[in-house]
Amino acid sequence: MLSEQTIKIVKSTAPILAERGVEITSYFYKSMFEAHPELLNIFNHANQKQGRQQTALANTVYAAATYIDQLEVLLPAVKQIAHKHRSLNVKKEHYPIVGEFLLKAIKDVLGAAATDEIINAWAEAYGVISQVFIDIEEEMYNQANWEGFKAFKVMKKEEESSLITSFYLQPSDGSNVPTYQPGQYITVRLSVEGEQYLLNRQYSLSDAPGNKYLRISVKKEGENPTTLGKVSNYLHDHIGEGDEIEVTAPAGDFVLDTTDAPLYLISGGVGITPMMSMLKRTADEQKDRPVTFIHAAKNSDVQAFNEEVDEALSKLSQARKYLIFENPSEADRENNRFDAEGFLDEEKLKALVTDTNASFYVCGPVAFMKNTIENLANIGVKEENIHFEFFGPSINLKEYQPA
């Protein structure tokens, strides 16, 4: 338990952290990686370069300062982060390293304002906060199918659209394919030629559980793989059938509920991948559950899984599909391949949502999710009925402003 004096001091630093948090976390990562470059085998380098990891950590530290006397308020966010840590093989021995350099960053950036009293209070608080993460992650490690990374062989590689390709994976050692919940993800780790450190990326499992394989469906990101999309481009261009990649056991808390409530699966672009797992599981096990499948894409050329979606929906007694194309082709228009043009806005959602007490699952680009979540709230959907998945560092979608 933290002392009242420690709580008071930590809470008093919240305004400073709100103002200079990113400056502190940027300094933290720079100094930690200089001293411990081996940790670059764990972190997503793209998120570092884009500043997303620094912003996410700043938000987390600020939240910890604000709720240091009510840490239970942060548990949902802590569990989400802990899933990502477990999937990246973050271990308890990493936490003292993080604590050392986080305290150093606070002291060096704030200078004289970071008194010994403040640093000591934060050292005590960090010990409590880190132990919460360690305990939750230890439980997740104990529940996982295996610990760390395991070799899987690509048994099939299949193009789903001009941008998205699926990889069907089986354990190289011949062991059973792990069970998982619809909506979960795995971490893929690659050694890429020309890269000094290993590269990690998390991808949703895009098929229903219970098959003799794990399937991930990867969008080829960016026109220049040297600056963006190194892992996705490498998978598309260099990983073929028979090759091996390393993955961690399925993780994540963005999982399908098993109630009878009407289900809305809302996705943009490659955000369709966890929805495929949810849709196919529902079609197999809850055939009478009302399902509305809403997907936004640029056009049919980049849209994935259209026939697979139709096949799953045909198994359901109450199912609807609604496609929104931002920039439909002439062929799309001639063949009536979409239901609306433009973006999924509040007006379209209002026309589609017939039950605001339903379960809503949202996945896609950050701006798409931010707008969709806000629009769902505007039409009367309660926050607890909206579930979403964002890949990358945890951020506050309500505060996100597209560049």
Automatic annotation (TrEMBL):
Residues 145-403 are annotated as: Reductase. It comes from the Bacteria. Its cofactor is heme b; FAD. SUPFAM superfamilies: Ferredoxin reductase-like, C-terminal NADP-linked domain (SSF52343), Globin-like (SSF46458), Riboflavin synthase domain-like (SSF63380). FAD binds at residues 185, 201-204, 390-393. NADP(+) binds at residues 269-274. The record marks 29 as: Involved in heme-bound ligand stabilization and O-O bond activation. The active site is at 95 (charge relay system), 137 (charge relay system). It catalyses: 2 nitric oxide + NADPH + 2 O2 = 2 nitrate + NADP(+) + H(+); 2 nitric oxide + NADH + 2 O2 = 2 nitrate + NAD(+) + H(+). The record marks 84, 389 as: Influences the redox potential of the prosthetic heme and FAD groups. PANTHER family: FLAVOHEMOPROTEIN. This is Flavohemoprotein. The gene is hmp.
